[in-house]
Amino acid sequence: MSGAAVDAEYAALAADYDDDWAVYNRATAERTLRAVRDRAGEPGRALDVGCGTGTLLERLTTTAATVAVGLDRSAEMLTVARRRLPGTPLARGDAAALPFADASFDAAATNSALHYADDPAGCVRELARVTKPGGTVVWTDWDAGALTTRGVIAWLRLTRRPLGRALSATAMAAALTDAGLTDVRVDRWRHGWLWGLATVSGRKPG
What we know:
Blueprint: H1 4-13, H2 17-20, H3 22-40, E1 45-49, H4 55-60, E2 67-72, H5 75-84, E3 90-92, E4 105-111, H6 120-130, E5 131-142, H7 147-158, H8 169-178, E6 182-191, E7 195-203
Parallel strand pairs: 1-2, 1-4, 2-3, 4-5
Antiparallel strand pairs: 5-7, 6-7
């Protein structure tokens, strides 16, 4: 993911992040969780990449059937997640080079994180790599094909805020296909009037 600017942004945001972004975080986490469970049921072992303060991670661990692992590049966001979810495995790392062995998880998900990546398609290949054959990858993120989201992206670039490469829903689906996933599904949706989002999912053959 993009480097020092993103780290500094989330170091500053971490303490108040859950309050400031509560509604958005709940909405995107629930949509991502719905896709995970639609495709994978209750996965035995699940990975949340870009877990932040743990909103999605908390929902993944609501049943005893699932052991969930969270990864984020921000130490400050992980500190909040550790307070929120004591005992949940958390790791600091980058989506572009996941510190996990091949075929480690039944499901791998990422929520509103890969638009900070310079190569989101490469991050998707990493998600696919660590997913077991027959497992599921789910990616929720900004849909750069939505007019209002394009406006947000333009504003962020104009104001020199941290941003990587946001993709359209179509390009997100293509990234899953290029990573070798099959039965790729696309759910384009909105959160309020501003956020055009997409949840894309696919299955690893095997």
